[in-house]
Write a structure and sequence with these properties.
The complex is a heterodimer.
Chain A (H helix, E strand, L loop, with lengths): L25 H24 L7 H26 L7 H13 L21 H24 L4 H19 L5 E2 L3 H12 L1 H19 L1 H11 L1 H6 L4 H27 L1 E2 L7 H11 L11 H20 L4 H26 L4
Antiparallel strand pairs in A: 1-2
Helix pairs in contact in A: 1-12, 2-7, 2-10, 2-11, 2-12, 3-4, 3-5, 3-10, 4-5, 4-10, 6-10, 7-8, 8-10, 11-12, 11-13
Chain B lengths: L20 E10 L2 E11 L4 E5 L6 H8 L7 E6 L2 E3 L4 H7 L1 E4 L11 H5 L14 H15 L14 H14 L4 E5 L7 H16 L3 E5 L3 H7 L2 E6 L2 E7 L5 H9 L17 E10 L3 E9 L3 E6 L5 H8 L7 E6 L2 E3 L4 H6 L2 E4 L3 H5 L6 H5 L9 E2 L2 E2 L1 H14 L16 H13 L5 E5 L7 H16 L3 E5 L3 H7 L2 E6 L2 E7 L5 H9 L1
Parallel strand pairs in B: 3-8, 3-9, 6-7, 7-8, 13-20, 13-21, 16-19, 19-20
Antiparallel strand pairs in B: 1-2, 1-4, 4-5, 9-10, 11-12, 11-14, 14-15, 17-18, 21-22
Chain lengths: 348, 510
């Protein structure tokens, strides 16, 4: 279409502004922080515990397995935050999806059956149920936000409370266990690495979506300036609903992975997961004001959280201190992000 | 903090100095750019000193240094012959330098009086805020400045022009010796401009040195005593405004001749491309009917608030009409959203670059690309990034967007360059109907001329152009026909050869 401008009339007198010169991605420095923290624990480990933090394959496996569930959620939450929104409901949606789907995942030889008629189903049935419920919760979030124009904070806060209620009510707060072998594979398959595989698959998929597809570009545009996005012809309402549905769907997926791995579902599952997921995104450099951030950053952010928590346990630091320090890290991440943004905005 | 009681007294303390403000050898660098290259500026008390220069010339940076927002890398600022350090905006205010920013910085949900006296509220004997006294002080201040506003009104209820007056009153209340005004007339009506100028003259008579940033040449001759020109971060010179002509100034600003400001060319006018039939929308506008043809530039003139922007918004589907309809090439179309409009070959450059135009935190590249993605450069949802980047680069190069790279955050560009990127966004979509709302507001002469030339070129290629503009010379110079609006109605449609300033003003004021 450059044909609209003929060469002669507006010929460039200044050199063309095209030479690619990218800044070093922010994610790189976050990765360095991850390395730094791991190295710090390694040193502290030798000093205080007398053993290596990193040279311990089973510890590393536990870290990454724990990170996987939060990580899957965080990939969805990241997209919501990039649109300039927030999702407080993911932890409760995990519980709701988990409780309902679990009742479709039981094997007939288990003594306490919720739906005796629905046992020994192929794993795809509970999986589909879990994902659908997650996506439905996301749809309700998105619908409330776009149609009633209430702030995402309030819409998802409502969902957070209600979904937790549904999770308790559904089985009268009794846990559900006795899953079929095939369903348990979602959390234990591939020699116990399945959660990690799923997490990485989800992360890579949405990394591609955010970076190389129109859908991703529109997500950034809406977060950067919804009014300009609208004038650019983006259907903000339907797009936002889709983004919240993705976040819900991924919460549902995380729920399936979590219950399949521990082979039981109880209504308290996923408590505070939403905050861990938001923290992972924020630590990973996703801007709470919208428009900026990457899936890769969130993945690294989730790893930082996992390493820090595991490191605290390794150093036998009391759980109370762990929470205090975790809170501090989250605040620090936002402070750093703010300063970075101010630096970029040099405005003449 | 200064005693608020004194503030309604006339200012005189700077009168006896030759210069109230002297800036010498000030240098400021940002990563990769020399924003100011050893510049100077000398302001006499009791004068209006205009600051001229294209966007990106360094005027704003210099003003921000004087107002304590930026620190210079080297050089000095002298106030009444004393070298001053201004580490914060507050310290500048206390030293007697007040700045009125282009984007007004008032608290919308608070009253006029609260905004003026914030942090300096008069207290009663209990240490609580004395609201009656605050109202009285505001009224005294307004009386002195000849401002007629209710001190109890909320800022959000006021027009932009009145908000400006509040900012001025606030600045004056600091007993300032230097008052910096950054394009104060860019968003207010003619009537408000006249009032503003009379206030400025009063302040000048009281001995205040006023620094006045503007892009409007006629304002310079009307209000300024002296002016200084900057170009590409360098100081070019200071002159009396009575000594120069308009062309002299333009030459100083751009460093090159601009042969013709409005290069209107004879263009073959084709078929009717778009027509509006009796469009109505609430109180915003009624019975709007007009047509625009291929190759035609249809200007929309009128006072600010006459409903022109509402009309183009509705045509572009941002807010659908209550009644009436739109035809494109004789076919009735139902445009309910901007998507529909884009699908029908329309493009809308909105009035407010920051609010509805730019994706401020994103790069130039990300800013230029979103609109075209509905139709082109996408295969199965995936963006064909390479081809698209190539096209975006081409357009930016041809429009002479000044930037170190396509990955620069758009917020860091000057207004003119931002506008070029936004126009580029629509050029990518290859529009048949280009709607531009104040396409050259607040941008420099050079960029303006380039945009005008571009619009002419598009007309040559058969694009139908609708151009809303409050700048009379622009409307008169560019348009084939001119629609004039007054209070939501079309009061006349003039042909190019019958239109002149008087007729348009007549119809606009009805």
């Amino acid at each position: 279409m450059a044909a609209v401008l003929s060469e002669g009339e507006l010929s460039p007198s200044t050199p063309p502004a095209t030479k690619a010169k990218r800044r070093l991605p922010q994610e790189f420095s976050i990765f360095l922080v991850l390395i730094g923290i791991a190295a710090l624990f390694e040193i502290l480990g030798w000093i205080f515990v007398g053993q290596s933090f990193l040279a311990n394959p089973s510890r590393l496996q536990i870290i990454i397995l724990q990170v996987s569930v939060i990580g899957i959620i965080a990939v969805g939450v990241t997209q919501v935050i990039i649109t300039g929104g927030i999702d407080l409901s993911s932890g409760s949606v995990v519980a709701m999806s988990a409780m309902i789907a679990a009742t479709f995942a039981q094997s007939s030889d288990w003594p306490k059956l919720i739906h005796p008629a629905l046992t020994d189903l192929p794993f795809i049935v509970p999986l589909a149920v879990g994902l659908t419920i997650g996506a439905a919760a996301g749809f309700v979030n998105g619908w409330l936000i776009t149609k009633t124009k209430i702030p995402p904070f309030i819409a998802t806060l409502g969902m957070m409370v209600s979904a937790r209620g549904i999770a308790r009510w559904y089985t009268d707060a009794s846990p559900v266990s006795g899953f079929t072998e095939s369903f348990a594979m979602i959390g234990n398959g591939l020699d116990r690495w399945m959660p990690v595989v799923i997490f990485l698959a989800v992360a890579v998929f949405f990394h591609i979506v955010m970076r190389y597809t129109r859908f991703g570009k529109f997500t950034y545009a809406i977060g950067a300036n919804p009014q300009a996005a609208r004038v650019s012809g983006i259907n903000i309402e339907s797009h936002l609903i889709k983004v919240y549905m993705i976040a819900g769907l991924l919460a549902g997926l995380a729920a399936m992975v979590a219950i399949a791995r521990i082979k039981t579902a109880q209504s308290g599952i996923g408590m505070m997961y939403e905050l861990d997921a938001i923290a992972a995104a924020v630590i990973g450099g996703v801007s709470l004001s919208g428009g900026r951030g990457k899936i890769l950053g969130t993945v690294i952010g989730a790893l930082i959280l996992g390493v820090v928590l595991s490191g605290f346990t390794f150093l036998k630091i009391d759980a109370y201190y762990q929470d205090i320090i975790k809170g501090g890290i989250i605040v620090l991440a936002v402070v750093i992000d703010q300063q970075r943004q101010n630096k970029m905005r040099k405005s003449r | 903090m200064s005693n608020p009681n004194v503030s309604t007294e006339p200012v005189a303390k700077a009168r006896n100095y030759q210069y109230v403000l002297e800036v010498e050898n000030v240098r400021k660098e940002f990563p990769g750019v020399v924003a100011l290259d050893n510049v100077q500026l000398k302001i006499r008390p009791g004068t209006v000193h205009a600051l001229m220069g294209e966007n990106g010339a360094g005027k704003s940076t210099l003003m921000k240094i004087i107002a304590g927002i930026y620190q210079p890398d080297s050089g000095t600022v002298k106030l009444r012959d004393q070298v001053v350090k201004l580490p914060t905006p507050l310290s500048a205010q206390e030293a007697g330098i007040a700045m009125i920013h282009q984007e007004l910085l008032l608290m919308n949900s608070m009253t006029v009086a609260e905004n003026i006296w914030i942090r300096r509220e008069p207290k009663n004997s209990l240490g609580l805020i004395d609201h009656n006294k605050m109202l009285q002080m505001t009224q005294d201040l307004f009386k002195r400045l000849n401002i007629n506003l209710d001190p109890r009104a909320e800022i959000s209820e006021l027009t932009v022009g009145n908000r400006q007056l509040v900012e001025i009153a606030k600045a004056v209340s600091f007993n300032s010796d230097v008052l910096i005004m950054d394009e104060p007339t860019s968003a207010i009506t003619e009537k408000d401009v006249a009032h503003l100028f009379s206030i400025i003259r009063d302040l000048r008579a009281q001995g205040i040195g006023i620094v006045y940033i503007t892009h409007k040449m006629n304002e310079l001759f009307e209000i300024a005593d002296e002016f200084s020109v900057f170009r590409d971060g360098k100081y070019i010179g200071t002159h009396l405004s009575s000594d120069v002509t308009r062309d002299d100034i333009i030459r100083m600003m751009v460093g090159r001749e601009i042969s013709q400001m409005f290069p209107k060319e004879e263009v073959e006018i084709g078929e009717v491309v778009l027509s509006a039939h009796n469009l109505c929308r609430g109180k915003d506008f009624q019975n709007i009917s007009f047509e625009v043809r291929a190759g035609e530039i249809l200007g929309f003139a009128g006072l600010v608030g006459s409903g022109r922007s509402h009309v183009v918004e509705t045509i572009f589907g941002v807010k659908p009409p209550d009644s009436g309809h739109i035809e494109i090439k004789g076919q009735r179309v139902n445009i309910k959203s901007p998507q529909d409009a884009i699908r029908n070959g329309m493009a809308l450059l909105t009035e407010d670059r920051k609010e509805t135009g730019c994706f401020l935190p994103l790069s130039i590249q990300e800013n230029i690309q979103p609109a075209v993605l509905h139709e082109r450069y996408v295969k199965r949802g995936f963006v064909e990034q390479k081809t698209l980047d190539q096209q975006s680069n081409d357009i930016c190069a041809k429009m002479r967007v000044k930037t170190p790279s396509m990955f620069e955050i758009i917020e860091n560009l000057s207004g003119g360059n931002q506008q070029k990127v936004l126009i580029g966004r629509w050029l990518l979509t290859d529009p048949k109907i280009l709607i531009m709302d104040e396409p050259t507001r607040g941008i420099d002469v050079g960029a303006k001329a380039e945009i005008h030339r571009l619009v002419t070129q598009l007309a040559h290629r058969g694009v139908a152009v609708i151009m809303v503009s409050s700048e009379m010379p622009e409307v008169l110079g560019m348009s084939d026909r001119i629609v004039v609006m007054h209070e939501g109605r079309i009061t006349g449609i003039l042909h190019r050869n019958e239109a002149d300033q008087v007729k348009i003003m007549d119809l606009a004021a009805n």
